[in-house]
Design goal:
The structure is a homodimer.
Chain A (H helix, E strand, L loop, with lengths): L10 E5 L3 H12 L4 E5 L3 H11 L2 E3 L11 E5 L3 H11 L4 E5 L12 E5 L15 E6 L2 H14 L2 E4 L2 H30 L9 H13 L2 H4 L9 H10 L4 H17 L4
Parallel strand pairs in A: 1-2, 1-4, 2-3, 4-5, 5-6, 7-8
Antiparallel strand pairs in A: 6-7
Chain lengths: ~260, ~260
């Protein structure tokens, strides 16, 4: 492949049928692009996604065209990247993966990591997703940049180490926030209340962060060093040990951090 | 006061000049109501809020009218409620506080707890705030209900115990989520990245919770029991002990919870 290759001249192959793979055809559609082949291991998964994407569904990489330039998007689990990439290697094939944590120089030609949480049930605003790109070859850099620009997404090129850090931070704000809500939900359930009552608060907490940094936005008993409320809360959590542990650790952190305020 | 009293016939007094007090005049304006008096301890604070609200600013409760029925909103710190309420007691005075954690039967006539985080800098969507009400007298119940209906807010009457639980849950989802973002922000800062890159993800995490409960929405390495990623992350956090503690506890909780999935 030469540097002047255009993404529109490549045959796009999507490997994987999981949550992220499910969204690639729609993201590509924003760029006016179509997935030609969906490659996967489960017959049902491949058929379903291929039907949705208007693609050929295949389960054997040998059925891919040999004479065309392919752009292969690996949307598979970290553990499967190496094996699937190995089965797809070829001179006329540019391959990228989408994982935040997998390092793959020598295995793929680049990385396109959309920093977002994907579920089948919901379509996030694709043009609000920050794409973090890594290119191990100059032609991959050009193609990735063209692709994200066509999707109308925000992007930045970063190295493997920075992507790992971003992935860790994403786990913290996504999975751990969701876990906080789950703990609060279980706690409220005993009083006949629902976590839904907390959503306007949580939404406002997030909106505030668009206007002020988390240090300035912080409020609450731990920041005020209101030890009476904190110890009352810990008492109230006697029968909720998981939440009690989290409350204790978070409050200790916050008191430590805001000691001199 | 009799049961048929109308909020529009009462003279509204706002005690306090803090973050929540700052928003009461605007919330009342939605109901077509005006704060007649702002009462506070700091001259500057009283003057500023009274000017904003188009109210008389006073620092001595003795300057309040004796011959009118007053509706006093105590928007003061938990620690100050008892003292301020004591200085305002009177037969023609109905008094409520707005705290999630203070219990006040015998001290005030009711509670109007807006479950939201308030800052001077931002105006949350008032009509999206759930108001949790407690009435220690039937006439307070009628007035509180009328007030929130006029604001066009959602409301529910709850007892002191349920309000305490809600307050605890609010601390968890608001303060602790904000703290997670702060920890992630500090961690990213070292790599020249900003927490702002994480906001589309955090927003999507919250939007998902409107459509599916936190149990179904959960993703990530801990739920997948991806011990390799978890131990790599803990390694990466060696120089960030506060975040490492949080990561370790949260991941342990999540692995425990999703053990049988």
């Amino acid at each position: 492949m030469d540097h002047t290759k255009d993404i529109r001249d490549l045959t796009i192959v999507l490997a994987g049928t999981g949550r992220l793979a499910w969204h690639w055809p729609d993201m590509l559609a924003l760029a006016g692009l179509r997935v030609a082949y969906v490659l996967g291991r489960s017959t049902d998964g491949v058929q379903e996604l291929a039907a949705k994407a208007g693609s050929f569904g295949i389960m054997d990489p040998a059925h891919l065209p040999q004479a065309e330039d392919l752009f292969v998007i690996l949307a598979v689990s970290d553990a499967a990247i190496q094996e699937v990439a190995g089965s797809l290697k070829g001179e006329r094939r540019m391959m990228i993966h989408c994982s935040g944590s997998a390092v793959s120089e020598g295995i793929t030609d680049g990385v396109c990591y959309p920093l977002q949480t994907f579920s089948r049930e919901r379509q996030p605003a694709y043009n609000n997703i920050p794409f973090f790109l890594t290119a191990y070859r100059p032609d991959t850099e050009a193609i990735l940049k063209q692709l994200v620009l066509m999707i109308n997404g925000k992007f930045r090129f970063i190295d493997d180490d920075t992507r790992s850090r971003l992935h860790l931070a994403a786990v913290v704000v996504n999975n751990f926030t969701n876990h906080l809500v789950q703990l609060a939900s279980e706690y409220l359930h005993g009083a006949g209340m629902s976590y839904q009552d907390l959503l306007p608060l949580l939404e406002e907490t997030v909106y505030k962060l668009e206007e002020m940094d988390p240090g300035s936005a912080q409020t609450g008993p731990a920041v005020r060093r209101d030890l009476e409320v904190i110890s009352k809360h810990l008492q109230m959590l006697q029968n909720h040990p998981a939440l009690q542990d989290v409350y204790e650790l978070m409050s200790r952190n916050l008191q430590e951090k805001y000691r001199h305020h």
